[in-house]
Design goal:
The chain is α/β, with parallel strands linked by helices. It has one domain (about 1-140, about 160-175, about 220-245): P-loop containing nucleotide triphosphate hydrolases (Rossmann fold), CATH 3.40.50. Helices cover about 50% and strands about 15% of the residues. It contains eleven helices and seven strands. Strands 3-2-4-1-5-6-7 form a seven-stranded parallel sheet, with helices on both faces. About 40% of the residues are buried. The structure holds guanosine-5'-diphosphate and magnesium ion (MG). Magnesium ion binds near residues 14, 15, 102 and 105.
Amino acid sequence: MYAIFLTGTAGAGKSLLTSILKTWYSDKGATTIAVNLDPGAFSLPYTPDVDVKDHIDLPSIMDSYQLGPNGALIFASDMISTRLPEIQEQVDTLNPDYAIFDTPGQVELFAYRQSGPYFIEKFVCDAKCSIFLFDSTLVSNAINYVSIALLAASLKMRLNVPQIAALSKRDIVGDHWKKLLEWSSDSLKLEEALFEEKRCTEYVLSSNILRNLVKSDFYYELIPFSSITQDGILDLSAMLSRILSGGEEASN
Ligand SMILES: Nc1nc2c(ncn2[C@@H]2O[C@H](COP(=O)(O)OP(=O)(O)O)[C@@H](O)[C@H]2O)c(=O)[nH]1
Ligand SMILES: [Mg+2]
């Protein structure tokens, strides 16, 4: 069994991609399940085969501990790893070829607290990786691009599994995704764009961050895709195969 963990900022397209990948692999004849790891998920674009909400009930946490929605969500996110045995058993019983994990909308609750990294580390499967989604609508300019690239690197450090960097929602930014792709494959082009944005203080910081990401091999070439048109899903699945079955790291 291969496990794929989808990460990225809130609204980047994790849940929709979960449903697309499940259908994609199922259509190819692979048994595939979708696992919802977001205890606060309100409505999902797929029916989870395994759902953390069956094990963690947000309204009863709010009641029992007298917490507001935000406090309860933090509490619930910290509980995810305590439910690992039940979730592992459910997944093992379904015995899929692929398990796609949709992680909480608020990335900091999953990646920066103990629960998420622990869950990923201890989940037992043949190979695992994460896909970090760069939301096309958030990386509209060079400074924003560098800040999201820094977040991607930060998640790679926290989760410690091979990571693919993908550009989501390429259908809604016109041709701008081509510029974003160029920045991802040639960091000097991004540095030029940082310079042209003429924000002096931020230029020094952002260009230094960029150079260090490149130097440390934490700067990723993006795979652009759209969950609506399905452009790029083939490229994404090819990269997933290389990493999961070939043990290859994502190419920087
Ligand atoms: N146009 C477009 N919209 C998308 C795409 N992926 C996700 N969305 C929309 O963006 C919003 C947030 O997506 P969702 O999957 O819930 O993001 P999550 O918070 O990362 O799980 C939803 O309204 C989706 O329908 C995409 O590839 N193209
Ligand atoms: Mg979601």
